[in-house]
Amino acid sequence: MRRGPWHDRPRRLAALVFGVAGLVVPAAWYGPLVVASGRPSLWVLYLGIPTFSAAMAGAAGARTLGPGCCRSAGRAALRGAGLALAAFVLFSFLFGAALTWFEPGWGWRSILGLATLTLSVGLLVSCWLIVPLGAAAGWVVWRVLGRGAPAPP
Fold this sequence. Notes:
The protein is mainly alpha-helical. The chain has one domain (10-146). It contains four helices and no strands. The protein has helices at residues 10-37, 40-60, 73-102, 111-146.
């Protein structure tokens, strides 16, 4: 069976899939506001950081989604959901740090409080969307990496 182009680079595949998944929701919710404002800081805060966080979490967890580690689609979806939540934790801290950098009035001592606030409110508001989207991304990575892999014993 022919191996796909992603088998040699599973981290790039996972980073791409999770990065796109991390861009879809913020682009739909905040995209029109960011474009209308014309402020580069909003591009970074609301589109760049979520995409970067999701891509990094996907790249870090790529090995757990491969056919050698994960034997079923359900497990891949659960691991993808876990990676999405890890990406949201990373996003919260990066957002808190970037907000103190871009917006006047926030000091560097506010980073932990802003990260906690972003994490708690963000999970209440958007967890219903983050978890299934991460599960779908995990399933996609597992499915692509599973093509051309040797059959499990």
